[in-house]
Hints:
By secondary structure, this protein is mainly α. It contains 3 helices and no strands.
Amino acid sequence: MISVPLLYEILYSAIQKQIFSSPSAIKLIVFSFIGISLAYTELKRIYEVMTIFVKLKLNSVDSSLMLYVLMHSPMD
């Protein structure tokens, strides 16, 4: 039976090979979508944290400090 990390590695390398053997226009589109996805994830995280601040009714100084700490802490 194949292990999950090995399967992931095989799929990842196949996708990478396909991307890098594609024309430049396709690469640009793929990397643009990846960038959009990463930006969306980061903005969603900020939105969720700010929603918590609103529920806790924190003032702007406390919110800014807590947001800075949360955004610069390592993700699990």
